Amino acid sequence: MKINISQVKREIGRKESFSFVCSARDVGLLEEQGWLDATIYVDGEVVNTGRLLEIAGIIRAKQVRFVCNRCLEEYSSSLEVPFSEEFQAMTLETNEEDNDFSCYQGDEIDITELVRESLLLAEPLKALCREDCKGLCLHCGTNLNLTSCSCLERIVDPRLAVLQQFVKKTEP
């Protein structure tokens, strides 16, 4: 995903829009991470601020597969991720590690790695098929979203069983 900046870098204040459609494989996302069927749409804008080129936009990923952390069922979802990055022209004095921005050379900026990192950071830490997912029964493993089981409903952690005595004493 290379953005041609030949026109933008010539004039301070100039803006130019860009748009890409690609597969997850094109940005280096692996199939085993649930990205196999994902289609990625990138829309954004490059702005010349004088010293830097600012790139900002939105990444939309459709048909990303996740595994629910509670019930272990696979589900598909969409992600919408804003992104922004500042780029400076590479010179002899430029040291990319000391700056808060990336460097570019020539008339193109490759945003493939920026898109990849943004999508990976946007993946949910706790993937849930739905907010009210009931998960699996702790004893028999039944998916409680699909059916109920005959296990005891109020199974208490043995380490906390002593506290139940206090609850029983306070009830009328």
Tell me about the biggest sheet?
5 strands, mixed
N-to-C span: 68 Å
How many structurally independent domains?
2
Query: What is the molecular shape?
Result: elongated
**Compute the gyration radius: what is it?**
25 Å
SS summary, helix count: 2
- Strands of the largest sheet, in order across it? 2-3-4-5-6
- Looking at how many chains there are and whether they match, the oligomeric state comes to single chain
What would you call the structural class?
A: mainly beta
Description of the molecule:
This protein is mainly β and 172 residues long. It has two domains: 2-122; 134-172, no CATH class. Helix content is 10%, strand content 34%. It contains two helices and seven strands. The protein has helices at 112-122, 164-170; strands at residues 2-4, 15-23, 39-48, 53-67, 74-89, 102-104, 108-110. It has a five-stranded mixed sheet. Strands 1-7 form a two-stranded antiparallel ribbon. Strand 4 and strand 5 form a beta hairpin. The N and C termini lie far apart (68 Å). The mean pLDDT is 86.
SSE inventory with pairings:
Layout: E1 2-4, E2 15-23, E3 39-48, E4 53-67, E5 74-89, E6 102-104, E7 108-110, H1 112-122, H2 164-170
Parallel strand pairs: 5-6
Antiparallel strand pairs: 1-7, 2-3, 3-4, 4-5
Task: Give a brief rundown of this model.
The chain has 172 residues and is mainly beta. The protein is built from two helices and seven strands.
Identify the notable features of this structure and list them briefly.
single chain; 2 domains; elongated
